[in-house]
């Protein structure tokens, strides 16, 4: 069964419990997270937690959510676990949250974007670089810094693709 917006608090609690020094709290949380990981909507719940910047959402839990999200991308993005609609939602929301104040979380977001770009650019994500270029027009120094971080990671990731068709596409674009 798919996870939804109503499950965000449950996923947050599981991530928070995964930090517990008490083994009887931590182990069930880790097990539940491993089960959730294969369910549709899990990445959307994680991104909601990452994007939450209010006082109630701890940065260590947001960072753990980003790490789980990155691992889920690596394991499940190409499989049918994440629907095309959810992927489109995730790509859009990732870009909308590029101006992250926490440097550790911003680094994880840059890695996330680069991992997804490796798989989806240019076919499913043709607007990626035009969006990033548009963000560089802003006078916001933090936003510009985050965009440069994303560009660095993404270009580095794309430049390592080995298939000749991918290399040709990369050289034509850049």
UniProtKB/TrEMBL annotation:
<keyword id="KW-0813">Transport</keyword>
<keyword id="KW-0539">Nucleus</keyword>
<dbReference type="InterPro" id="IPR016024">
    <property type="entry name" value="ARM-type_fold"/>
</dbReference>
<protein>
    <recommendedName>
        <fullName>Importin N-terminal domain-containing protein</fullName>
    </recommendedName>
</protein>
<dbReference type="InterPro" id="IPR001494">
    <property type="entry name" value="Importin-beta_N"/>
</dbReference>
<dbReference type="InterPro" id="IPR011989">
    <property type="entry name" value="ARM-like"/>
</dbReference>
<feature type="domain" description="Importin N-terminal">
    <location>
        <begin position="29"/>
        <end position="100"/>
    </location>
</feature>
<dbReference type="Pfam" id="PF03810">
    <property type="entry name" value="IBN_N"/>
</dbReference>
<dbReference type="GO" id="GO:0005634">
    <property type="term" value="C:nucleus"/>
</dbReference>
């Amino acid at each position: 069964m798919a996870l939804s917006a109503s499950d965000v608090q449950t996923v947050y609690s599981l991530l928070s419990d995964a930090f517990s020094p008490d083994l009887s709290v931590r182990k069930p949380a880790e097990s539940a997270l491993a089960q959730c990981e294969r369910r549709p909507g899990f990445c959307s719940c994680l991104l909601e937690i990452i994007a939450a910047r209010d006082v109630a959402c701890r940065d260590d839990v947001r960072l753990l959510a980003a790490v789980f999200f990155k691992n889920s991308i690596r394991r499940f993005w190409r499989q049918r676990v994440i629907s095309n609609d959810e992927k489109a939602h995730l790509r859009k929301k990732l870009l909308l949250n590029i101006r992250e104040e926490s440097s550790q979380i911003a680094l994880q977001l840059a890695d996330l974007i680069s991992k997804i770009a490796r798989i989806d650019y240019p076919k499913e994500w043709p607007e990626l670089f035009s969006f990033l270029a548009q963000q560089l027009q802003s006078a916001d120094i933090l936003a510009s810094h985050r965009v440069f971080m994303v560009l660095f990671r993404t270009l580095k990731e794309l430049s390592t693709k080995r298939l000749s068709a991918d290399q040709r596409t990369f050289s034509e674009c850049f």
